[in-house]
Amino acid sequence: MSDNVVYKIVSNATIAAIYFVITYLSTPIAFGQIQIRIAEAMILLCFFRRDYWIGLTLGCLLSNLTSPLGWPDIVFGTSATLISSLLVAYASPCLLIGVIYPVVANAFVVGAELYFIQELPFWINVAYVGVGELIAVSLGYAFFMIMKKRKGFLAVFKADRHLDFKF
Predict the structure, then answer these.
(1) Which CATH number describes the domain made up of 3-156?
(2) What is the mean pLDDT of the chain?
């Protein structure tokens, strides 16, 4: 196994662990109709390294194993993060567009999940989940915009694309 493969496995495992710990520590606000899953701020990492979709999806899966909504959150909540991270990785021409994908995907997928499981009003679910996701991903956006001014920041996680991003 090459050093590059080992590095990708270790870095994705680290991303998954960080996602899980952040979600676990913020459990009271990470699940339910009104939720701000702070770990979702990390989804913008996929803008800089496409392979991070693996660690983010795995971290979300592990986090959703503790969800009070059970298996539907494991399947649908994790699917929303998978879709979001792939869109950020492969369809985002700029970081700001990368913010939109997780907001829309989570709002509709998790909103529908809450609608079917808890029989809560669909559009209210979409709005609440969307606003919570917007808050979380906006934190990530602000973090990257601030940190991009630090020399060598992107090298810390071996970013291999969008090294000169503007916004």
Answers:
(1) 1.10.1760
(2) 94
